[in-house]
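Let's practice the habit of predicting before peeking. Look at the sequence and jot down your guess about where helices and strands might fall. Then scroll down.
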Amino acid sequence: RIDERVKKEAEAVLASIGLTVSDAFRLLMIRVAAEKALPFEPLIPNEETIQAIKAARRGELVTAGSAENLLNSLNEDD
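Done guessing? Here is the structure:
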């Protein structure tokens, strides 16, 4: 299933270039069949990234509150 918000955004982008979702899917399938691969490099996260994603989904986020605080925390070890 595709999130309705994502679908609407994709439909708008595709419409701006004269395509429908069906057109885009058809083009994707034709290219996959022809090239025997996806037409883009899928991102495969490493273990650290997977753990960070899981933590974020559990609500375990580190926040800085502002760009200045973020930069200060990143530069603390310098």
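How did you do? Residues 4-35 form one domain.
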